[in-house]
Amino acid sequence: MKKFVAALAAAGIAFGGMALAPAATAAPTTPESTPAPISWGPCQSTGLKNAGAECGFLKVPMDYSRPKSGEVSIAVSRVKHKGAQYQGVMLVNPGGPGGSGLGLSVLGKYVPNHAGDTYDWIGFDPRGVGSSKPALTCDGNYFSYNRPGYVPTSPQLEKVWLDRSKGYAKACAKNGPILEHMKTTDAAQDMDSLRKALGEKQINFYGFSYGTYLGQVYSTLYPKNVRRMVLDGNVDPRKVWYEANLDQDVAFDKNIKIYFDWVAKYDSVYHLGKTGDAVYKLWTEQQKKLAKTPAGGVIGSDEWTDIFLQAGYYVFGWEDMANAFAGWVQKGDWQTLKALYDSSNPPGDDNGFAVYSAVQCSDVQWPTNWNKWRFDNWITYFRAPFETWGNAWFNAPCAFWPAKSGKPVDVDGSKVAGALLISEELDAATPYAGSLEVRKLFPKSSLISAPGGTTHAGSLSGVACVDDKVADYLANGTLPVRQKGNHSDAQCDAVPQPVPAAAAAPAQKADSAAMQEKKDLLPQLLHG
Question: Which CATH number is 16-135+178-234+410-497's, of 3.40.50.10170, 2.40.50.100, 3.40.50.1820, 1.20.1250.20?
Answer without folding.
Answer: 3.40.50.1820
